[in-house]
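Input (structure):
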């Protein structure tokens, strides 16, 4: 009887879990759309040097955020419910926020009084105030996740992001320039903290014990180390280009990165989630007969082919239409960013297989190989950036393509050695998608050439290119499938992935 009650309870809870997941996904989509809309408006209003200054300062502040947040959110999510410990974590977060804010304000004073840069100093002051609330907001996030309040968390994020977007857009339109962007972030953080504390009805008691602090810092150092590695990969381009070439070039480079990131987030996150779902199911089935790694390798081989076939046309299409897309979205003033978008899109094609490396290594029990690989990839990327940035931002972007080739080789090595992925079969399986991709490129380029001599608008041309390119790509794949008598794996992979 008890067993049936448990099953009934699980069935009752299941719709709630699905609803919570949908709310979380909706919040992420809303945040991405609002941030992209704010970015496009900012690009229309700001000069490239202004945007470069904002991007440069934001990249420096992001480094302080890593230390200020310190992994407090993750510690809350991993520990059992304990009010006293939670208060101590909040105490550390508040202290970290105060330290980060004090450091930022000192830097602002130096900029204003010593270097006579009042505008930059004001920007740093607003960022410093934002830093004050960020660590405590992260703790509240952890509480909402740990207690299963995902729906409430999503609603708070949507409301806060909407308020922040409203302030940022209004500030941009009324001439506040880059200060409006930071004011928007600060508004988002204030609304988040106010709503979080109101919903939780929690004001932490500030106190701390030495024994617990040691435990917390021991956990924190691993989180901080991993985030520092990711930070190097994410912000090295903006920082190095801004330091070597100037803020105008940094603005162009960051704008190009943001355009490509908008597509990468759409492709990358679903790819990672699907990889985890598909490969985990295979691993669970393979655990019964002791062949989990081999089964994971077989499934991952097919999944990588499918992922390349689906993702590569997106990035190649972006590379081909970068000029008109940048002109439509950002305006003529951002034309120098178009070729950077092309190069960074090509870089993303080379990084596609890396989306499945983490689930492969995790499920095969060799995840310890992941951090050293990420570190090496980051150092190689940084080395190319330092070496080629003096020759211009195009050379810097080309260097990132070269670094992506190295990252591609590392991913292939890890997957084949520790996950039994057959890269011979992957390359063979990608042959027909590659032919279809070439056919798509020819059609897109020809349509672009024809439209250039006609009265068609840029948006109409892009829509026609996307539609024709998709039809030619899928049609070519289908034709090759028929000609090869069904031996081409791409459609079989789709069917097997759905069954899995």
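Output (sequence):
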């Amino acid at each position: 009887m008890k067993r049936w009650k448990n099953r009934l309870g699980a069935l009752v809870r299941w719709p709630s879990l699905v609803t919570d997941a949908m709310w979380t996904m909706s919040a992420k989509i809303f945040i991405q759309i609002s941030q992209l809309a704010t970015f496009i408006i900012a690009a229309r209003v700001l000069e490239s040097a202004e945007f470069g200054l904002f991007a440069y300062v934001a990249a420096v502040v992001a480094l302080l955020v890593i230390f200020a947040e310190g992994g407090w959110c993750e510690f809350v999510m991993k520990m059992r419910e304990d009010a006293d410990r939670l208060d101590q974590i909040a105490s550390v977060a508040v202290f970290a926020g105060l330290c980060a804010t004090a450091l930022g304000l000192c830097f602002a004073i130096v900029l204003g009084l010593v270097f006579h840069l009042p505008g930059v100093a004001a920007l740093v002051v607003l960022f410093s105030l934002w830093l004050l609330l960020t660590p405590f907001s992260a703790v509240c996030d952890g509480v909402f996740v740990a207690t299963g309040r995902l729906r409430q968390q999503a609603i708070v994020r949507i409301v806060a992001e909407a308020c922040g977007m409203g302030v940022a857009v209004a500030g941009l339109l009324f001439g506040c320039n880059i200060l409006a962007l930071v004011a928007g972030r600060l508004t988002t953080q204030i609304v988040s903290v106010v709503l979080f504390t109101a919903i939780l009805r929690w004001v932490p008691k500030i106190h701390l014990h030495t024994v617990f602090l040691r435990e917390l810092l021991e956990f924190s150092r691993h989180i901080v180390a991993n985030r520092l590695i990711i930070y190097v990969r994410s912000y090295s381009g903006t920082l190095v280009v801004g330091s070597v070439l100037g803020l105008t070039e940094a603005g162009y480079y960051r704008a190009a990165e943001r355009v490509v990131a908008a597509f990468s987030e759409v492709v990358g996150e679903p790819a990672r989630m699907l990889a985890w779902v598909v490969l985990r199911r295979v691993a669970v089935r393979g655990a019964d007969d002791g062949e989990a790694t081999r089964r994971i390798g077989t499934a991952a081989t097919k999944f990588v082919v499918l992922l390349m076939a689906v993702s590569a046309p997106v990035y190649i299409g972006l590379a081909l239409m970068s000029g008109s897309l940048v002109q439509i979205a950002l305006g003529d003033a951002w034309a120098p960013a178009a070729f950077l978008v092309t190069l960074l899109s090509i870089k993303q094609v080379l990084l596609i297989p890396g989306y499945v490396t983490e689930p492969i290594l995790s499920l095969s029990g060799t995840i310890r190989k992941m951090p050293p690989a990420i570190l090496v990839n980051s150092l190689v990327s940084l080395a190319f950036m330092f070496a080629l940035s003096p020759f211009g931002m195009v050379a810097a972007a080309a260097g990132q393509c070269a670094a992506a080739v190295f990252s591609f080789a590392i991913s292939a090595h890890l997957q084949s050695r520790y996950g039994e992925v057959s890269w011979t079969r992957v390359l063979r399986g990608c042959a027909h998608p590659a032919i279809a991709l070439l056919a798509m490129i020819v059609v897109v380029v020809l349509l672009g050439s024809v439209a250039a001599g006609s009265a068609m608008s840029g948006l109409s041309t892009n829509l026609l290119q996307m539609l024709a390119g998709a039809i030619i790509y899928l049609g070519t794949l289908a034709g090759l499938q028929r000609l090869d008598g069904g031996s081409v794996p791409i459609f079989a992979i789709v069917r097997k992935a759905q069954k899995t």
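Notes: The chain has 19 helices and no strands. The radius of gyration is 25 Å.
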